[in-house]
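Troubleshooting log. The previous structure file for this entry was overwritten by mistake, so regenerating from the original sequence record. Sequence copied from the archived sheet and checked twice against the printout by T.R.
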Amino acid sequence: MNRSESSFVGTWKDKGRRAKVLGTLLSLLLAATVLEASAYLAVRTLSRGDARSLFYWPPVIGAERYAEYLTVRDPRLGWPAPRDLGGQRYDAAGSRPIPAFPHVGEECVSLYGNSFTYSPDVDDAHAWSNVLSQQLGCRVANFGVGGYGTDQAYLRFESNETDQAPVTILGFFVRDVLRNVSQYVQFEFINTPTGFKPRFVVDGDRLQLIQLPRVEAVDFPTFAVAPERFLKHETFLPGSRLGPAVVRFPFTLVLLRLATSERVLARMRGRPNWSDFLTPGHSSQGLEVTRGIMRKFADLCRTRGKRCLVVVFPAPSSYDYERKTGRSLTQHLTYALARDGIDSLDLTPGIARYLGARPYEDLLAQRQGHHNEEGDHVVATLVHEHMVRHGLLSVAAGQ
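Regenerated output below.
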């Protein structure tokens, strides 16, 4: 083979190798494009379904409305606004209206907690606070507020110095552990752009109160895209290990991050995605913070000469898990409360006895998953029975 022929063959082989490499690259590019397009469609589908809370959607609110929120909000608790007291949802004392005993004053029991304490899916007459009032024969003031963490419920009790009820109940819904380590409920509930709240953090052997964040109206657009600049004590910052995923390119990495996130892995193991937050030593310190708040509640009760009770409300996921496995997801908390000498009532066993083979959904309203009229009646009855067994009935009656 002469030189010219050898050169031609070499050139042909080089072109063949280049074509092969190019073909491989194009194939990889096509595969990556298909993978990324599929990931994008998966993210869109998930973010519009039941998993939408796993994604961060920057809050949107008009400047005028946000400025009004800053003006009217409760300066310590966030909500409800003081102007809402004395209306249809809260009477002049800040309690939910109690039809059986409508007059403020001489309450025998007071309640604090979130929406499971307030009972938003039933009318005033069928709320468990009113049913318990009828069972006790005296007024049960209901200071529950939808969306509250245990921290806000405690702080509302602390600031309500006019509450003279001899018995006070703190309601704890199991998912409240997530709110107890958060400063902004938008990360848990979509469409709550004004959901700023105070929280407690563990500081050595005590709790430190982190006041309600203040994000000025002029700063809100920046906050919406970079909340980490404003929330220094937030567990669920978007893009963090425990926070929602930020929806952005590359979407394949968004799905990969979700697949390996702690809360998704918990669900894959058949456990509610909040359950690890109620285990000792969790990075969020959810159990330690929640236990600390309940200690402060009990201490304040003793200072004010009250008898107090913590009532633990299950979620459908925890109820079904415990019925299936026989293992309590709140055992670390209830054991800790017992060691601290704090009276508590876990509603799950009593609800299970009442329902028998019936599903927990029979006690839930369709709209938000809170208790329906039957469910609230069961709650009131279980609380009443506990009060009888533990001598709280005579305390409430002033005997």
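The radius of gyration is 27 Å. Archived copy saved in two places this time.
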